[in-house]
C-alpha cells in the first residue's frame, strides 16, 4: 500500500520586484544617416525630432543614465498595458549638456558602426539597435490587485529572477531593465521582430524535417532552462516562441508558478 501523498502547498514566492526609477522626457532625438536605411523599421520616419517618448533611468544622485529608450509603435496589447518597439539611445557626442539636464539631446545607435553589422545590412538586418518595451499602466495594475496570482507582476518577477542567468543563451527572453515612473512600469527586453513560430508555420506551411529539428532543439533547450530555474510555465505555446532571424526564444507568460 503506497504512502499518502503530501498535501498541496502554495507556490514558492518570487524575489521582491525591484524597479529602477525613470523619467519620460520630451527630448531632441537625432537619427544619423546610414547607407541603405530604406530597410529600417517603417516607424522611424524623422531625421530630427522632439519626442515625448524617451524613457531614461534616473541614477541615485539625480543624474540620467547614459542609455535611454525611444518608445515607438504599439505591437500588441497585454493585460494592463501594451508591447511596443523601441530604439536604444545614447547622448549626442556633440552635446555640451551634462547628465543632469532633462534637455540633453540623444541619438539612435546605428548597428552599422562595426564591420560585421555593416555586412549584415546586406541581408536586410535593421540599421539601429532596437528593444521591445512592455509598458504596464500602474493604475490598472493597482485595480487588478490580488484578483489573480497570474498577472503582469508575476511575469516581471520571472524576468527579473532569470536576468542574471543569461537566458538568451538558452533561447529564453529575459529582461534588460525594469524601469518605473509615476504612470508606467517599463520592461525593456531584447528585440524580436520576426513574428513567432506559429505565424511562421502559417505563412510558410509545413516545415522540412531539418527546419523542424532545428527549432525543436532550440525550444527544448529553452524548456530545460526554464525547468532548471524552478519555473512552471503553464502558458507556453508556439505563439510564445518568438523569432529573431534564425533563432527562436521562449517568452515566459504570466502563468508561471515557482516550484522546487
Automatic annotation (TrEMBL):
Q: Where are the transmembrane segments?
A: none
Query: PROSITE patterns, per this entry?
Result: PROTEIN_KINASE_DOM
The highest taxon in the source lineage is Eukaryota
Q: Name one GO molecular function term.
A: ATP binding
Q: Where is the Protein kinase domain?
A: 69-260
Q: Which UniProt keywords apply?
A: ATP-binding, Nucleotide-binding
In the UniProt record, which is one GO cellular component term?
cytoplasm
BP-aspect Gene Ontology terms: intracellular signal transduction
Protein name as catalogued: Protein kinase domain-containing protein
Annotated organism of origin: Helicotheca tamesis
Amino acid at each position: 500500500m503506497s504512502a499518502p501523498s503530501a498535501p498541496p502547498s502554495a507556490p514558492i514566492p518570487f524575489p521582491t520586484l525591484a524597479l529602477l526609477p525613470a523619467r519620460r522626457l520630451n527630448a531632441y532625438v537625432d537619427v544619423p544617416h546610414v547607407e541603405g536605411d530604406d530597410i529600417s523599421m517603417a516607424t522611424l520616419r524623422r531625421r530630427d525630432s522632439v519626442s515625448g517618448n524617451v524613457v531614461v533611468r534616473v541614477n541615485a544622485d539625480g543624474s540620467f543614465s547614459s542609455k535611454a529608450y525611444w518608445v515607438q509603435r504599439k505591437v500588441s496589447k497585454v493585460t494592463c498595458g501594451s508591447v511596443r518597439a523601441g530604439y536604444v539611445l545614447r547622448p549626442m557626442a556633440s552635446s555640451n549638456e551634462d547628465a543632469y539636464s532633462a534637455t540633453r539631446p540623444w541619438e539612435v545607435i546605428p548597428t552599422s558602426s562595426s564591420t560585421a553589422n555593416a555586412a549584415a545590412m546586406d541581408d536586410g538586418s535593421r540599421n539601429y539597435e532596437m528593444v521591445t518595451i512592455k509598458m504596464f499602466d500602474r493604475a490598472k495594475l493597482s485595480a487588478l490587485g490580488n484578483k489573480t496570482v497570474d498577472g503582469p507582476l508575476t511575469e516581471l518577477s520571472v524576468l527579473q529572477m532569470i536576468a542574471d542567468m543569461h537566458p538568451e543563451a538558452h533561447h529564453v527572453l529575459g529582461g534588460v531593465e525594469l524601469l518605473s515612473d509615476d504612470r508606467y512600469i517599463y520592461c525593456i527586453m531584447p528585440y524580436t521582430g520576426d513574428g513567432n513560430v506559429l505565424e511562421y508555420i502559417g505563412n510558410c506551411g509545413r516545415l522540412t524535417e531539418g527546419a523542424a529539428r532545428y527549432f525543436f532543439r532550440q525550444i527544448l533547450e529553452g524548456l530545460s532552462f526554464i525547468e532548471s530555474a524552478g519555473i512552471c510555465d503553464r502558458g507556453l505555446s508556439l505563439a510564445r516562441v518568438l523569432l529573431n532571424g534564425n533563432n527562436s526564444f521562449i517568452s515566459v507568460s504570466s502563468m508561471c508558478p515557482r516550484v522546487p
